[in-house]
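Worked example

This section walks through a single chain of length 164. The input is the sequence exactly as stored; nothing has been trimmed or padded.
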Amino acid sequence: MGALLLLQGKVAIVSGAGAGLGRSICVRLASHGARVMVGDLDERAVTDSIAAVQSVGGHAAGRVTDITDRAHCDALVRGALDEFGAVDVLVNDAYHGGDFSTFDRADLAVWRATSDVNVFGTLNMTQAALPALTASGSGRVVMICTHGVDVIQPSFGAYTSSLT
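Given that input, the structure is written out below as tokens.
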């Protein structure tokens, strides 16, 4: 709980923030005083996450963001800087789950797309935010990774291989 109290007045960017865990992260950050910049592929999901943050009295802005596109990542960071003046926290929650096929039936193009999001997209987002995080003097990066690397399932090959 003490660490969450340190969020008062901080600015957090959350990628993959449009639904589920990402939206919950945004709301939790806002409930502890952080201002939140929401990034997601789905425009309606961005709008809904902003509304969820506002429903707990928080401040949020957002934009459609494809983390595989470096220009989108740069724009999300610029948006946070323009709207809130800083970036203190980056939460990398965006992911691609793969095609849920077993390897013998896998489309390796899907595996490549999964890695493009989970590995290189996350690196794009982190690299884009790094100057602002450094300028904050106390910047933090949170990488979200599910149990898919610990509990390997035959139909999660694309996802699991992109995280190991």
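What to look for: Residues 108-136 form the longest helix (29 residues).
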